[in-house]
Design goal:
The complex is a heterotrimer. In chain A, about 65% of the residues lie in helices and about 0% in strands. Chain A is mainly α. In chain B, the strands form two sheets. Chain B has a two-stranded antiparallel ribbon with strand order 1-2. In chain B, strands 3-4 form a two-stranded antiparallel sheet. Classes of the chains: A mainly alpha, B mainly alpha, C mainly alpha.
């Protein structure tokens, strides 16, 4: 756990740096707002309409599927660490991980067949 | 493959058969989508359940817990496994006769049903809090998805979201209870929790009671007991009828089994053949009696003013949970046998009642009492079967519901000092007669303005009669089932 | 020193958690949630389980908050126009903290934690346990994940216009 003290210090310094730069620019910067400075920038073109347009809910489905496979990946991490050493005592852990992977390949093939990742 | 692993897999064979059929259906659904419209998924489900029931009967004895102490192998667990597989098969048939689940929704329903049954069987057989949690979450999360099938109506959306939010809340509280118990006792196994609680019976901090209350709250959500009963009417009304059919039977039985297993193993000690006494400081009978009384009262009183038949049946299912919990008060084998028998009878009559409601709502497009007007005359099969189910639910003699209630009251009277609960239960049954007979009155004593000829599928006719016959027969020849239940209870770990 | 860090991270997490509820804009709430998850990861590291801390950041912050932000974007809620009384909110948040702290203290009076409790497990030990003693729940969860995809499909396909044959 002592190994993580540098991580904490790094986070702390990063946050302090960001806040510091922002504060300093806020204090030291000139404040002369006018209409064209405050308007939204859109590559030189006049922006029209609202920035929030309704978008396809299908993107949400893609995010949910990502979550499911992210959790799968999280369980692969411990397997990847030990399976090489466990091969000395037999193939039990290799088969267990293989079964897990097979089930999730099954799930992935279901997704592909049902065209769940198509956006059109 | 160590021999221990082979034994484990052999004992887990019913669920492995279930998983195999789940994967088969999954693969077929992906590879040959044209099969979705036929009866193929139904055949897979029913065949899979049949095979699983057969595998359950073949399970070896002698091993108490397996998978390193996570699941129990005893007659009690096998009873519930057979119960869940049979219930799921019947509910799959109900779903296939229903028009509400359009043809393309049935395969997903079947897949979810198979996996929820898997989770329910885990719940009933768990001897480790981790297994209990996995079972509850598998059953709950997939139930949230199943409850959302009727998404095109406002009520359906409301049902699914209510079920999800309150379910997530109660699961969160429950796992907080698990972590507190783990921190206090140092183990997640039921038996070791029980040993620790018995050994440290004096000076027990309040946090243990708090944790046990939270765990009870999580399980109570699944069985819709007080205080977590409020979701039941809205969810049952909002979902499609086949889904409500399954919800009213499956999770309730699993929750009752989990409740019995956890609280009798971890909060009570076995002091004889089929007799338990609670650990000093944790008075289980009083708590269960209070909860049963309040649940019964809430269920029966709230059902009186309802006009939607599904809500009436939802409140009546809450009341039935109150009756079932009465059997746990005595903490001995007569009470538990009564609970198991009542669950079997309740399964038959409740599935029948919800099926009738589903058929009527398919034809008349409404679930109100007014849709039932004159049903008894325009479709005699429907009327007679519904009458049988409603009489059995009330507890009128010579039906299986009466025998179940009789056994429960009898077991209650054996425990000293709970006469008030038995009288309370009888009064509640009388109150329930009122709202059940409201449905019967609409069916037989009111006429419909336009007479709509009801065409029931032969599947409906056959299925309803096949459910009504055991409801009557169990009221007369209840011996074999009671013996089976008693053997199951006596072999409880 | 560990106590000092614990207090600092704890207060940070509580502040971020309260800001999830108290912020007017829902996007600010989602980002406060991210910060509170980082605080939780710090607490897990203090409990000597770095694996859980990393999983927390990967799964929670990396996937679940994405879902939160998606919902905020889909719903497009306006910040509520009614002015909320800040003092009332801060006082009630403080009362909630105080009550729960008191409750926890009162409930745990006289608790001696069980012997054989937690000791630090390295990642290798966790992995070995996961694949020997707890192999069975692990495989069950994979089946559960597979069926979850069916559940997601069942809920989502009704909103798609293209039918799936």
């Amino acid at each position: 756990m002592e190994n993580f003290l540098p991580v904490l210090l790094l986070l702390f310094f990063a946050v302090c740096l960001c806040i510091g730069i922002y504060t300093v620019s806020h204090i030291l910067g000139p404040k002369n707002p006018n209409a064209s400075k405050l308007s939204t920038y859109e590559c030189g073109v006049e922006p029209e309409g609202s920035a929030r347009v309704p978008f396809k809910t299908h993107f949400y489905l893609v995010a949910v599927l990502f979550l499911l496979f992210d959790v799968e990946g999280v369980f692969f991490i411990p397997w990847a660490i030990i399976y090489r050493d466990s091969l000395k005592e037999g193939t039990d852990i290799l088969i267990a991980g293989g079964l897990y992977m097979a089930l999730l390949v099954l799930a992935l093939s279901y997704i592909f067949r049902k065209r769940l990742l198509r956006l059109h | 493959m160590t021999p221990e692993m082979m034994t484990n897999l052999k004992l887990f064979a019913p669920e492995i058969a279930l998983t195999f059929f789940l994967c088969t259906l999954f693969v077929y659904d992906a590879v040959l989508p044209s099969l979705r419209k036929t009866l193929f998924p139904l055949i897979v489900i029913v065949f899979g359940m049949g095979l699983a029931i057969w595998a359950t009967a073949d399970v070896a004895t002698g091993v108490q817990t397996y998978f390193s102490g996570m699941i129990a192998n005893d007659g009690f667990g096998n009873f519930f496994r057979i119960f869940f597989f049979a219930t799921a098969a019947i509910c799959a048939i109900v779903a296939y006769g229903s028009k509400e689940l359009e043809t393309s929704g049935r395969t997903e329903f079947g897949l979810l049903l198979l996996c929820i049954t898997f989770g329910l069987s885990l719940m009933a057989n768990a001897t480790h809090l981790l297994t209990l949690y996995i079972g509850i979450e598998t059953a709950s999360i997939l139930s949230f998805a199943m409850a959302g099938f009727a998404r095109h109506t406002l009520r359906g959306n409301e049902a699914s979201i209510k079920y999800l939010i309150f379910g997530a809340l109660s699961s969160g509280l429950m796992i907080y209870g698990f972590s507190l118990i783990y921190g206090y006792t140092g183990s997640l196994q039921y038996a070791e929790i029980g040993k620790y609680l018995t050994a440290h019976a004096d000076g027990r901090p309040l946090i243990v009671l708090f944790a046990l209350f939270l765990i009870y709250g999580g399980i109570a959500y699944k069985i819709s007991a007080f205080p977590m009963h409020f979701w039941t009417p809205d969810v049952y009304e909002g979902t499609t009828s086949p889904v409500a059919t399954f919800f009213s039977v499956g999770p309730k039985a699993a929750g009752v089994a989990a409740l019995i297993r956890f609280f009798l193993t971890a909060c009570a000690t076995k002091t004889g053949e089929g007799v338990w006494t609670s650990i000093p400081g944790l008075s289980l009978p009083n708590a269960v009696a209070m909860i049963a009384a309040v649940t019964m009262l809430i269920g029966n009183l709230s059902a009186i003013g309802q006009t939607n038949v599904k809500r009436i049946l939802a409140y009546s299912s809450i009341a039935h949970v109150g009756y079932i919990l009465m059997g746990l008060v005595g903490m001995e084998k007569t009470g538990l046998t009564a609970i198991l028998f009542y669950l079997v009878a309740y399964c038959l009559m409740n599935i029948g009642a919800f099926w009738v409601v589903g058929i009527v709502s398919d034809i008349k497009k409404s679930e109100d009492l007014s849709a039932f007007r004159g049903m008894g005359w325009s479709s005699p099969t429907l009327g007679v079967c519904m009458a049988v189910f409603l009489f059995s639910l009330t507890g009128i003699p010579m039906f299986s519901g009466f025998i179940g209630k009789f056994l429960l009251f009898g077991a209650l009277l054996k425990a000293p000092g709970f006469l008030w609960l038995a009288i309370f239960g009888v009064l509640n049954s009388v109150v329930s007669l009122y709202y059940y007979s409201k449905i019967l009155k609409a069916m037989y004593f009111e006429r419909d303005e336009q007479v709509v000829a009801l065409d029931l599928l032969p599947l409906h006719r056959a299925g309803l009669v096949l459910l009504a016959i055991p409801t009557v027969v169990l009221g007369l020849f209840f011996g074999p089932v009671i013996e089976f239940a008693e053997k199951a209870v006596l072999s409880f770990l | 020193m560990t106590d000092g860090i614990f207090i600092a991270i704890g207060i940070f997490t509580l502040l971020c958690g309260s800001s999830v509820i108290l912020c007017k804009s829902p996007v600010y709430s989602a980002f406060s949630l991210i910060l509170s998850f980082f605080g939780l990861a710090g607490l897990y590291i203090l409990l000597e389980s770095p694996f859980i801390a990393v999983i927390q950041v990967l799964v929670y912050t990396g996937a679940i908050v994405v879902l939160f932000v998606y919902v905020v974007m889909l719903m497009n809620p306006n910040s509520s126009g009614a002015y909320r009384n800040w003092i009332f909110m801060i006082v009630s948040a403080f009362l909630a903290w105080a009550v729960s702290l008191y409750l926890l203290k009162a409930l745990t009076l006289g608790v001696a934690p069980a012997v054989g409790g937690a000791h630090a497990l390295s990642l290798k030990e966790v992995a070995t346990l996961l694949f020997t003693k707890y192999l069975w729940p692990f495989e069950i969860l994979s089946i559960f994940l597979v069926v979850m995809i069916v559940a997601v499909f069942a809920l989502a396909k009704q909103s798609k216009e293209t039918p799936n044959e």
